[in-house]
Amino acid sequence: MRVDIVTIFPDFFDVLDVSLIGKANQAGILNLRIHDLRDYTDDRHRTVDDTPYGGGAGMVMKPEPWGRALDRIIGLSPTGDPLVIFTSPAGEVFTQTAARQLSREDHIVICCGRYEGIDQRVIDDTTNRARTVTMSIGDYVLNGGEVAALAIVEAVGRLVPGVVGNPESLVEESHEDGLLEYPSYTKPATWRGLDVPDVLLSGNHKLIASWRQQQRIERTRAIRPDLLPGPEVEDDPGSSSGQ
Ligand code: 6GU
Predict the structure, then answer these.
(1) Residue 118 C-alpha to ligand 1 middle, in angstroms?
(2) What is the pLDDT of residues 22-66, one digit of tens each?
(3) Whole-angstrom distance, CA of residue 64 vs CA of residue 112
(4) 3-class DSSP state for residue 68?
(5) What are the CA-CA distances from residue 201 to residues 91, 207, 210 (Å)?
(6) Which stretch of DSSP H or E encloses residue 32?
């Protein structure tokens, strides 16, 4: 899988070298390329931002460097059909389901926004030429899209076949089937007066599997009830209890 990342902080992505993703990159399973947006500026100061039309706080990323960078990266796409992702707290939320879908792409381009965002015409122009999505990694605000891009690359990269050594470790995980993961234990069987649950020492695999499933349901109900299927009360058009 080919992954291009456009950023004004290329060094931010050095951390990938110390991870499984970096190993996959060296092994050729992933083909990661980091692009410095400032290489696509044309002034002496390598300017990437300017004040917003209409006023307001902060700076907006100028369209021209983005346009040049994306012309080149989209134009040189080995598949000719890249998926372009703009990171933004105003985007659709990135989930495990989205990570699964992205892991089936052959070429993704991640555009890291900074400051108050990128000139909207960059997203509009890109939408006219390539499959384009805007993605957020959650309901909080980061200073820029770099941390979001790292999260996306790690979540997607580990789902690409061959990146994670044991594919079985990918199936019994939090979020893979809508539930949180069961609690895990290793040796010793007793630690600081705390015992590993007996069932895990029983050797009864059927019993262990059903205990784990029960733990997943209980945990999800306690910590993330929003993940469990339930009655859709909010959007019910027939509901008349308008209190
Ligand atoms: Cl993708 N970008 C920024 N700046 N903040 C975020 C985000 C992205 N996702 C959550 N917060």
Answers:
(1) 13
(2) 999 999 999 999 999 999 999 999 999 999 999 999 999 999 999
(3) 15
(4) helix
(5) 46, 11, 14
(6) strand 31-36
- DSSP H or E run through 22: helix 20-27
Q: Which of 88, 143, 146 to mutate to test the pocket of ligand 1 (most atoms within 8 A of CB)?
A: 88
* Nearby residues of 116 by Cβ (< 8 Å), 6 or more positions away: 52, 56, 57, 58, 59, 60
Q: Whose CA is nearest to atom 6 of ligand 1?
A: 89
Q: Is 242 helix (H, G, I), strand (E, B) or coil?
A: coil
Question: In the structure, which protein residues have their CB atom closer than 6 angstroms to any atom of ligand 1?
Answer: 87-89, 91, 135-138, 140-142, 144-145, 148
b/e sequence 6-16, b meaning 16+ C-beta within 10 Å: bbbebebbeeb
Atom of ligand 1 nearest to the CA of 87: 1
Q: What is the DSSP letter of 114?
A: B
Best probe residue, ligand 1, of 142, 146, 154, 156 (max atoms within 8 Å of C-beta): 142
Confidence of residue 241 (pLDDT cuts 50, 70, 90): very low
List pLDDT tens digits, range 72-108. 999 999 999 999 999 999 999 999 999 999 999 999 9
What pLDDT, in 10s, does the model give residues 183-211? 999 999 999 999 999 999 999 999 999 99
